[in-house]
Amino acid sequence: MPRNPRGREHRPLPEKITDLAANVLDGTIRLPKFQRDFVWTRQQVLDLLDSIARGYPIGSFLLWKSTVNLASESSIAGLAVETPDGGEETAYLLDGCQRLSTICGALHWEPNGDPESFWNLVYDLEKEQFLHRDDLADPPTSQMPLRLLDTPSIYFPRLNDLSSELQARARTLFERIIGYEVATVTLQSTPLSEIGRIFERVNTRGTPLATVELVRAATWRSDFDLLDEIDWIRDALARKHYGLIDRKLVLRAIAAAADKGFTTANVEELPFFDTPALRSAVRATEEAARRAVDFLTTEIGTPTAEALPYANQLAVVVELFRQVPRPTFSQYAAIRGWFWRTALTGYYDGWNSKKMAADTAAIQRFRDGARQIDIQCPPLSTRLWTADQYRRDSARTKALALMLAAAGPLDLRTGARIDSGRALAMTNDMQYHHFFPKAWLMRQETPYEEANLLANIVMLTAISNQAVADYPPAAYLKDEIDFCGEVEMRRRLESLLVSPQAFDAAMQGDYKAFVSARAETLLAWANDLIGGERPADEPGADDPEVILRGETVEVVDTSTDD
Length: 562
Prior knowledge:
Helix content is about 45%, strand content about 10%.
């Protein structure tokens, strides 16, 4: 087990919870802006106070002492927080905001506002329970306002008119709340990169603390909010159906645009940039992201961010188009080749710091005149499609789907161009089919894993998918050949990347021979794409209508204006 270096032992120390609350109000402990607003219910407030009064544990508190200057909140529980003079180190509250908000509000609320405030709280000495009041009138003597606990000179004189039993309860309440101690862990000299991981592990009840939120707090100014800037970029890409991308991915792209790189360490350098430099990096990222999405939709054929095999590819494409904003014809081919090579070989299965640095260096070489985006990828083989399973959301399946769409697939029954954008949405399995139906193969005692190979997947319309059902290829292909002829059927199959050899194997019911032949065709097409081949153009408005057994099938244009 790795040991912490000297000075990094995060031992919990006891502190009075009332002292912690006072330190928050006087600014000794600051609330970074990534903390959530107060979200507890009235009952949760009462439950916490009851636990404290009974001496129950309420969990530890986590502080971080750092020289990093994080933007902090100016109020807690509706109470103003003082702004102390800056020092060498600042203590930030990372975990415990909801609990300390409750203590601050309960003990320091002033009854000069809303009578139904969360903090209009009393302890009923007769019922021995905490209550919310809904008026500003002085409560009966048997109900002790919690705001008086912090002012003993007012609290104790109220006890004079009570019975000895109620007086004892009131003194016990005072001692337990004012003297209540909690375990407080203070992180010392801990880098920003570790804070999010530590927070996520200790804060099992709350929202994980993301790097984006930490960097936002460290770069926040009254006229600059990094989170707003990131969401502005996402909103711009949403018009092109690329809005559902992770904020951290955009943050990596911004760090690269600041001439740093994609790694977490690079991201952590952003707080040391001045606001104009950050604005410049954000604007450069936005412009490059628009070009990147245009490239992905037109040159690769990915209609949405979800269709990308690996989300991290987008960050790299954005940086490519920042450094090479107007690629030449040959550069476009090189970028296409890079995309297919990384998508098909699984290069981004693990995008670690080493690969991020390699990507940054490769982009710079490409900008400076290299003919290719030179990164180390394993060679392709047919095993990619004969060993991996079809799983709708897997990167391998998404890569295959893009390959099939790039070939300009024709529907098996109609001969019409398949709407690749609709098929690549990946929310509708009816756009894909096992060429040898799984049900039929399993009746032949073929194991499920073998029947579900990627090499057995073709792209079909939902209508054809339903018609094929679980019939063997020899049966459903013959029905269509009788209608359209074998030459036409072979043409349609070739657009589905089913070669003549694979067709012959299918007609003979030889599944293993079909898989072997089709995998060779997929490999050949993959190599063409890596070589810079453009995907087949999408069908346009001039496509002829399709006649299916005497019925007109409408080809619907599902595109929308940006």
